[in-house]
Amino acid sequence: MSMLLDMAFFPPVSYVAAIAEEFTLSSDGVNSYVPAIVYIEACENYQKQTYRNRCRIYTASGVEAFSVPIVHENGTYALPVRKLRIDWSKPWLMRMKRAIVSAYESSPWFDYYKDDLFAILDRQHEFLFDLNIDLLRFFLKKTGIEADIRFTEEFTPHGSTVYGRDLRGVIHPKRQNDILERLGLKKPYWQVFSLKYGFISDLSVMDLLFNEGPDSISYLKRLK
Prior knowledge:
By secondary structure, the chain is of the alpha/beta class.
């Protein structure tokens, strides 16, 4: 079954877990698989204060949110989501990269993945949509989740099944969702600052990847 998701910047674990649910591994978990079919909403207008341009990471100060500044055109955000330009006049990338290094440099898999991740950020994409899709493909590949990423060709009302199961608006920083609980993934994995603050669920999937590395797929598919 296919699914429909909003685009997301450094998507949370629940976002990737929803995709992983539709990814079917063979019985031995290695030799064959059926990729998830994922549609990304490409025909909506931008909505602020969502994961479309923000994410949450675990730092020495606890959870911190980071966002990508958007170029204001005609004083409004009512623009097609694929036409949203990133505001590179602001030093957001330098601040975010420093925060990522500070938060995760002592995690087990940081050195293994950081160069490829930072290379994506350093491309300085013109459009937010293109950056988000590149990041999504990166995190799916590195966590071991195979997915056929497609894009909507027309906007459909919420609840429509034209593109499969509609999860638009479900994964939102202002509202809790039940995805991890429903999938049996409300469980801890090792985090750098867990001894100080305890385990924090549903951060950016980057948190899972840097801490679990290749075992991320085992976590997402409950293989261990």
